[in-house]
Amino acid sequence: MHPMVNDDGTAKTRAKAAPRPRGRPRSFDRETALEKALLAFWEHGYEATSVSDLTRVMDIGAPSLYAAFGDKRSLFDEVVRVYGTRYGSFTERALAEEPTARDAVARTLREAATAYTEPGHPHGCLVVHAAANCSTPEVEQSLRDRRNANIAAFEQRIKADVAAGVLPADTDAAALARHTGAMIQGMSQQARDGASREELEAVAEIALSIWPRTGTHTG
Amino acid sequence: MHPMVNDDGTAKTRAKAAPRPRGRPRSFDRETALEKALLAFWEHGYEATSVSDLTRVMDIGAPSLYAAFGDKRSLFDEVVRVYGTRYGSFTERALAEEPTARDAVARTLREAATAYTEPGHPHGCLVVHAAANCSTPEVEQSLRDRRNANIAAFEQRIKADVAAGVLPADTDAAALARHTGAMIQGMSQQARDGASREELEAVAEIALSIWPRTGTHTG
DNA sequence: TCATTTTTGTAGCGACCGCTAGAGAAATGC
DNA sequence: GCATTTCTCTAGCGGTCGCTACAAAAATGA
Asked: Given an 8 Å threshold on Cβ–Cβ distance, is A48 in contact with B134?
């Protein structure tokens, strides 16, 4: 057995043994740099964030960026994945944990009001805005797919409630899901345009009032 | 009196006499070129539409563009003005012509469903999307101001109905206006993401169901 | 010590960006 | 005809874009 030499001070990333690699070690923490890139892309979008911007905020040289993350496009892809797990997971959590579609939508909209106006990071949703007006169609399409997949997930959840009798049989699941998606995207735009958490929460409550109250909560 | 020589075939623009200017006449129709620029900016946004793109779709050289429209920024400003009168005026028309705030909002959302999916031009609203992720902050801010002014106009109209007793006294006019703005922007995003007119109309009807039905139409 | 491996900083590639100088072309007034 | 005015075309400016070749630097294994 090799001794687990891992407390050398710089290698925060390698938590799991793995003997130190051969060459010169990285001078920066990969996760920290990735988070900086995430914030830059979140604030300015894919296209308006130049590689020069990225190297500045990540505090590394261009060759280091390309060695660690590939090109700009794959760095952005990784940023989107990290964003999804770190900041954008409240929707799927609500869908998984709440007992009814209505509860899931309610929790999603309320948490969106908070998440989209949180201090410490840009307002609104990266998935909604970061690939708008993008001259690389694949990038624009990849986020569009994520948005539409979210709406499809709402639709599935609503249909399940209809099938279970929780929602009326004549419920238009597709329209209800799209309405929810439009609200989320509209609230994200509002957050970018300066709306506060309280203002977005009021919007969310109005939007929620359209739901038939046949669910578990009737108070 | 000078005879009104105005039928020289090329000068569509000068409808009002004004003796022909001194130098070499323009080889293109300014309004037609402006409309082409409008469509380009609408589809790709301010930043992603290069001057080279513009000269190609307008079918003129770069010096002609700069002579006729100033720089890229002022061309975009003019495009936004033209867009407002030609494509984006349905909101203020509804606010001016409908008897109640609710009717104005209903007409706005229904007409948005049509306008945002009309064939022959890009989907969605130029004001919502064309300055997203823009590295020129003034451009981004100018469209943001237009969006927020729209919401303020809704709020004023709603407050007028509250004052007139058409809407309940405890109506949250600001939240209701912001909800309307979020719906418009969300529907615009949906249109960009591929939603059809019928789908957006269904979303609009759902959104409208939140309004208290104390207005003139109760059928 | 010394060869090997990997990262780092410098410096710059070709392509495109918004924009314009300058010469020629097409109209006018005289 | 001829000067004047205005527009058009070619060509290219300085700057930034995404990206990379290259050599020095810093770790390893022997």
From this structure: yes
**pLDDT tens-place values along chain B, 219 residues long:** 333 333 333 333 334 456 778 899 999 999 999 999 999 999 999 999 999 999 999 999 999 999 999 999 999 999 999 999 999 999 999 999 999 999 999 999 999 999 999 999 999 999 999 999 999 999 999 999 999 999 999 999 999 999 999 999 999 999 999 999 999 999 999 999 999 999 999 999 999 999 876 544 433
Q: Are residues A116 and A168 in the same domain?
A: yes
Verify that A96 and A168 share a domain, yes or no: yes
Interface touch A129/B133, C-beta < 8 Å: yes
Q: Final residue of a domain: which of A55, A85, A115?
A: A85
DSSP per position, B47-101: HHS-HHHHHHHHTS-HHHHHHHH-SHHHHHHHHHHHHHHHTS-HHHHHHHHSSSH
A107 and A184 co-located in one domain = yes
Query: Which residue bears the tokens 């057995």?
Result: A1
Q: At A123, which CATH number?
A: 1.10.357.10
Same domain, A142 and A169: yes
Q: Are residues A80 and A99 in the same domain?
A: no
Evaluate whether residue B69 is within a structural domain: yes
**Chain A residues lying within 8 Å of B192, measured CB to CB:** 144
Q: Contact, B71 vs B63, CB < 8 A?
A: no
Q: Are residues A81 and A92 in the same domain?
A: no
Q: Which domain holds residue A76?
A: 30-85
Q: Which residues contact B148 (CB under 8 A, 6 or more apart)?
A: A193, A194
CA dihedral B195, B199, B204, B210 (to 10 degrees): -120
Q: Which residue's entry shows tokens 């007139």?
A: B164
Do residues B147 and B130 touch, judged by C-beta distance below 8 A? no
One domain, residues B67 and B139: no
Task: State the pTM of this model.
Answer: 0.90
Stretch 144-183 of chain A: residues touching chain B, C-beta under 8 Å: 144, 147-148, 172, 174-176, 178-179, 181-183
Q: What is the CATH number of the domain that holds A66?
A: 1.10.10.60
Q: Does residue B99 approach strand D to less than 7 Å at its CB?
A: no
